[in-house]
Amino acid sequence: MNETHQNFADGRPLQLALREMHGLLSDRRTYAIVGGVICILTLSGPFGTSDDMTLLPRLLFWSLIVASGFGIGNLTGSMVGHTLRLAGLARPLCYALAGFAAGLAVLPAILILNLIFFQADLTNTGYLLRQFLNCLIIGGVVALNLAIFSRNSRTSPDPQNSSAEASSVLDRLQRRLPVEKRSPLRWLSVSDHYVEVATVKGRELLLLRLKDAIEEIDQTDGLQIHRSHWVAKNAIEKVSRENGKTLIHTSDGPILPVSRTYLPELKARGLLPSSR
Q1: Per DSSP, what are the bridge partners of residue 4?
Q2: Cα-Cα-Cα-Cα dihedral of 11, 16, 18, 19, to 10°?
Q3: Which one of 63, 214, 261, 271 has the fewest CB atoms closer than 10 angstroms to its CB?
């Protein structure tokens, strides 16, 4: 049982934000979009950079600006967004506040780069205000990205893997998972507002209720065994009784408790150990 619950610590906002960042960095489309933005800014030279800089310095400047906005902004925005969601705030408000936080986090990097490249006067209030507004625009882009990423992770399969998925039927819940973890389900366990989903290829935390997660399991044969746990029938290695408690030993190691409410279903399926 401890093996299951020790993984719940991985579900804190920072770890979840790092997982999302890893997902973005693992997607080739991310590099295409970031590279495209850098090229557009370098060639167009907005904010006077075409007048003040030659091509190569301008390319370096905008590369650093975009990389800072993408890295710092997305990581901060995602972490703040998860924190606010755990606090129970509505999703649109979470996105708005996460975008604002992302803009604030990016501001120091933008100021430092402007100081290095342009010897900017950081005591000029008007200049600082303009940079702050620019960073809010970056924050707005981050908020939009978070909304799109969240929606896609909840509803859309990866188009690059649609042909591979066509050969096997997936539960709706599995389509929420990163592509590399979309494999047969083993078990689900609750962690705060999240559900830890264990598959043959790994584990992932999803922001939804266990009840909703179970409703999205429409292909895998399994059963709820506790208010906080669900297990696939094929993942049950054995069922035991210890100190009056019924426990399910799963094929990948974790031991899950069975509450009395769900014992009749185990009995009906012939999964309970024979009593002596």
Answers
A1: none
A2: 100
A3: 261
- CA 28, chain centre distance (Å): 17
CA distance 271 to 248: 10
CATH 3.40.50.300 fits 169-268, yes or no: no
**Calpha distance 165→99 (Å, rounded):** 34
pLDDT of 140 = 82
Round to whole Å and give the CA distance between 13 and 191.
12
Distance of CA 265 to the CA centre of its chain: 34
CA–CA gap between residue 133 and residue 126 (Å, rounded)? 11
Q: Which two tokens stand for residue 225?
A: 């065994």
User: For the chain, what percent of residues have pLDDT higher than 90?
Assistant: 39
Residue 170 backbone zone (phi > 0: left; psi -120 to 50: alpha; other: beta): beta
pLDDT of 150: 59
Q: What angle do CA 183, 150, 102 make, to 5 degrees?
A: 135
User: Given a cut of 80, is residue 23 above it in pLDDT?
Assistant: no
pTM reported for the whole predicted model: 0.56
Which of 110-149 are b and which e, b meaning 16 or more Cβ less than 10 Å from the residue's Cβ?
Answer: bbebbeebeebeeeeeeeeeebeebbbebbbbbbebbbeb
CA-based Rg of the chain, rounded to a whole angstrom?
24
Query: In the chain, what are the domain boundaries?
Result: 2-156, 169-268
